[in-house]
Write a structure and sequence with these properties.
Helix 5 crosses helix 6, helix 5 packs across helix 10 and helix 15 packs antiparallel against helix 16. Helix content is 45%, strand content 10%. It is of the alpha/beta class. It is built from 18 helices and seven strands. The strands form two sheets. It has a five-stranded parallel beta sheet, with helices on both faces. A hairpin with a 7-residue loop joins strand 3 and strand 4.
Length: 399
């Protein structure tokens, strides 16, 4: 153990200006080096966005702990020159005392001081932006965490507290590393500027940052995000969906109503007050600006008949532009049917017709007819399970 070395651990949150921070760290490596700092990496080539620690961690939110380090991670980080910076949003999935203390103990075996940096968004805005990632080609963990819903905000579930109860989660980190080693910032979306966040992060390191243009992070539009949520719980590969998603309009956002957002946020208001009371983050009693004026009065995350039809037509257009369709792509449409059946039978019926058209040339994929679908939903669900065995090379029998 080197008692003279410090580790700066940036733990997110997700979608809280992480890309601008990591790109600035990557671009300013000579500056970091001149101040005795090294951005930890796993290989000599430069990974995208500078997420150097990413390949060292395994992730599965169905297990405890949800994040685990591969063999050699801690030792490799300790061998980097000078003080070390590790940045990975997925550390924010750690939420139990046992899992957080495990990482802290392993880090402290190699570093004399561990400083934790966290940027937070108000819980409704955090969830909206995080679920935008869920609907993207890289949001499999977000989809795993929030579950199968295509709305901007999921229904409140105490399980969400594992991530969104900041006081509970960050207090465990603080108890392990000391309050004086916690750098916690609350982002105000009415004023947030990527350059300000980058400068703030560099100040946490004790240096001034260079000049960088803000990193533009484009979120998908309403339809693209909603379809992406369905993809996240279907067997369709993200790469395949990325090709189809190009046809969707990205201008409209997937947003809840002000009332829905405020109701969701209310579960965390008191917890935020306790967090701010302990760490003196800012002058807001409840940590965040509680003005919901940026959100619409009516929800913008519900498909109308017109929007649903338009989404189907766009998907058809995208499919027509491809010469060959895979079983995974057909399965995606079948999964859509299962997800929307209970809430919108007319849309499910249209998707069923579409699935039959797409499966026309795939001998091993059999789509149940409309009458069977209507009268025997349980059998249809059994058929869905059998459909998944296609990937294993098994012949599917009629249900």
């Amino acid at each position: 153990m080197s008692h003279n070395k410090t580790l700066f651990l940036h733990i997110g949150n997700h979608q809280a200006e992480t890309i601008p921070i990591e790109r600035a760290l990557t671009a300013d490596r000579p500056l970091l080096s001149s101040h005795g700092l090294t951005l930890f990496h796993s290989r000599s080539t430069e990974p995208r966005h500078g997420r150097y620690s990413h390949s060292w961690l395994t992730r599965d939110l169905t297990r405890d702990p949800p994040i685990e380090a591969k063999h050699g991670f801690f030792n490799a980080a300790s061998k980097a020159d000078g003080d070390v910076i590790i940045s990975d949003e997925d550390f924010s999935y750690l939420h139990t005392k046992q899992s957080i203390n495990h990482f802290v103990k392993r880090f402290k075996a190699h570093f004399g001081t561990l400083k934790v940096v966290a940027y937070l968004q108000r819980q409704d805005m955090q969830t909206i932006s995080h679920r935008q990632q869920d609907g993207s080609s890289k949001g499999y963990l977000a989809a795993q965490f929030y579950g199968p819903t295509s709305r901007a905000l999921p229904a409140y579930d105490p399980r969400l507290d594992q991530y969104l109860d900041y006081n509970q989660r960050l207090s465990i980190w603080a108890d392990a590393v000391g309050d004086e080693n916690m750098f916690i910032r609350a982002l105000d979306h009415a004023q947030v500027d990527s350059l300000d966040v980058v400068s703030d992060f560099f100040q946490c390191l004790g240096i001034e940052s260079g000049d960088h243009l803000p990193a533009t992070v484009r979120s998908g539009g309403c339809t693209q995000t909603k379809v992406g949520h369905l993809v996240s719980v279907s067997p369709l590969s993200r790469d395949r969906y990325a090709e189809l998603a190009l046809v969707f309009d990205t201008r409209s956002q997937l947003l809840p109503s002000r009332v829905d957002a405020e109701s969701f946020y209310s579960h965390y208001r008191e917890s935020n007050r306790k967090l701010n009371q302990r760490f003196k983050i800012n002058s807001n009693e409840f940590l965040f600006d509680e003005d919901f004026y940026r959100l619409p009065q009516t929800p913008q995350d519900i498909w109308t008949e017109e929007k649903a039809n338009l989404a189907i037509l766009k998907m058809l257009k995208a499919c027509e532009q491809r010469e060959n369709l895979t079983r995974e792509e057909v399965t995606f449409f079948i999964e859509c049917i299962a997800k929307v059946y209970q809430s919108d039978f007319r849309l499910a019926d249209k998707l069923l017709t579409l699935a039959r058209r797409l499966a026309r040339n795939l001998d091993e994929v059999e789509v149940p007819d409309r009458e069977s679908f209507i009268s025997q939903l349980s059998i249809f669900k059994q058929w869905l399970v059998r459909l998944r065995t296609v990937k294993k090379g098994k012949k599917i029998l009629n249900p």
